[in-house]
Amino acid sequence: MSVCAGIIVTGTEVLSGRVRDRNGPWLAEQLAGLGIDLACTTIVGDRPDDIERALRCMASQDLDLVLTSGGLGPTADDLTAEIVARFQGCGMVLDKGLEERIQAIVEPLRERMPNLDPQALELGTRKQATIPEGATVLEPVGTAPGFVVPPVEERGAIVGKMVLERALPGHPTVVVLPGPPRELQPMWRAAVQAPAPALQAVIARASVFEQRTLRLFGIPESEIAQTLRDAQNQGVALERLEITTCLKRGEIEVVTRYPPDAAGVYEAFARVVRARHEDTLFSTDGTTVDEQVAALLRGSHPPDESRPPLTIAVAESCTGGELTARLTGPAGASEYVVAGAVVYSNEAKVSLAGVDRGLIERYGAVSEPVCRALAEGARTRLGGDVGVGITGIAGPGGGSERKPVGLVWLSVAGPDGAGLTRSVHLPGGRADVRDRATTVALHLIRRVLLGERDAGPGLGGVGTGRGGAGTREGLRNGRAEKSE
Q: Which residue among 250, 266, 283 closes a domain?
């Protein structure tokens, strides 16, 4: 029988959408790594009744473990610890040692801000040091401690065997964590190692699963559905595998989870994927295109690990700096990213990237010649070994029949004349077009760094047109677009 968990994210600011939930997805990934199945994630406001209803709902599903985040601050509306204690059938007690440790954390704040009300600080500290009776304390990362609160049955005379086997139905172990991700994440890592018998018993009963990720670019999800049918027709026992597919940023992510004794089944499935999608499967080890581009620029990615490192510079228009942001995301990006220029206006294209004004007047800002000039200008003017240019119409306005919203030109200029230039017509709203265009650009960079050169067909399946808007045939009689 699998071990199942639920997550309760508290906070009216998260429920209303003012703050994006970062804790639920992160905790889900951590649980999966421990072999614990996530049954549900619930977001509730700061109302006590709502938090308690969420706990009871999860308990009714016979979950082994519930994780909560948020509501552990020093103010009166931070009530998660009290609600969990009531739910687990225990009282609240002041932990004097914990109070002293929190006071030591707060003291530097008192010294920096002498106008703070000392009585309010003292009351807040005492509140955070008042914990569910019988809970294991998780030491504060900020000022708020966390707790592992065992089921009520584990406090009485029947504690003995229950913790080593399974709590009675409707009585999960509850781990109470703070809301800020910078506090929650290290605290959860500490909780997994903490001497908390109830949590350790849950982890011990979890099954260890393997997880592998394949990434493909340039095909629709329907192709993967056909691949699954092909694998089944070839006798691959797919029922032994838990396969999920997801379309993210124009890429297909195939995540497979399986018990160790099904490793051979997974390899058979992966062989079918490799055979059917040789041209679009770009990652068999789970690495992202961002990670692969970084490794290629550093010269540390197969097949040519001996190649010297390369630098890169970007002149981007419609993506507004998003490509530069992704290139500089990995640690150590300063080794290879030289510069990124947002050349949004035609004047900026001329003055910063060195685009010939006549090209813009003849073909328009969103065109192949201008895009190539942006890439070459990024390479020569900004001083990178590789230059990237992006220009397009992200919308919602600015499009035309020949050059519709979603049309994006991308060009990568590498050393020794290497390079690729493509147009794509991307679906979705403004944010979607910008995000997907950035992904296409990263794949073009990857292909150039792997040795591909221009004059081939477009990127299959991502919207490269032939004979319409955005193609070479559509470049004639262009206009000087300014809206991107």
A: 283
Number of residues that make up the chain: 484
User: Is the separation of the CB atoms in 344 and 461 below 8 Å?
Assistant: no
Tens place of pLDDT for every residue, the chain, 484 residues?
689 999 999 999 999 999 999 999 999 999 998 999 999 999 999 999 999 999 999 999 999 999 999 999 888 778 999 999 999 999 999 999 999 999 999 888 777 877 878 888 888 899 999 999 999 999 999 989 999 999 865 444 333 333 334 444 568 999 999 999 999 999 999 999 999 999 999 999 998 889 999 999 999 888 999 999 999 999 999 999 999 999 988 899 999 999 999 999 999 999 999 999 999 999 999 999 999 999 999 987 665 556 689 999 999 999 999 999 999 999 999 999 999 999 999 999 999 999 999 999 999 999 999 999 999 999 999 999 999 999 999 999 999 999 999 999 999 999 888 899 999 999 999 999 999 999 999 999 999 999 998 754 444 333 333 333 333 233 223 334 444 6
Residue where a domain terminates, one of 283, 301, 328: 283
Instruction: For residue 83, count CB atoms less than 10 angstroms from its CB and return exposed for 0-12, middle for 13-18, buried for 19 or more.
Output: buried
Question: For residue 253, what are the β-bridge partners?
Answer: 215, 246
Compute the chain's Rg from CA coordinates: 28
Could you list the residue range(s) of the whole structural domain that residue 427 is in?
Answer: 289-475
CA end-to-end span of the chain: 55
Residues 6+ apart with CB under 8 A from 52: 83, 86, 87
Residue 251, burial from CB neighbour count under 10 angstroms (0-12, 13-18, 19+): buried
Q: Does pTM top 0.85 for this prediction? A: no
Domain-embedded: residue 8: yes
Residues whose CB falls within 8 Å of the CB of residue 275, separated by 6 or more in sequence, listed in order: none
| Number of folded domains that form the chain | 3
Say if residue 221 is in the same domain as residue 92: no
Give, in order, the Cα–Cα distances in Å from 75 to each of 71, 72, 245, 255, 366.
9, 8, 43, 42, 54
Query: Do 150 and 134 meet the contact criterion of CB atoms below 8 Å apart?
Result: yes
Instruction: Tell me phi and psi for residue 347, to 5 degrees.
Output: -60, -40
Pairing of strands 251-258, 242-248: antiparallel
3-state secondary structure of 153: helix
Assess whether the previous peptide bond of 178 is cis (omega < 30° from 0): no
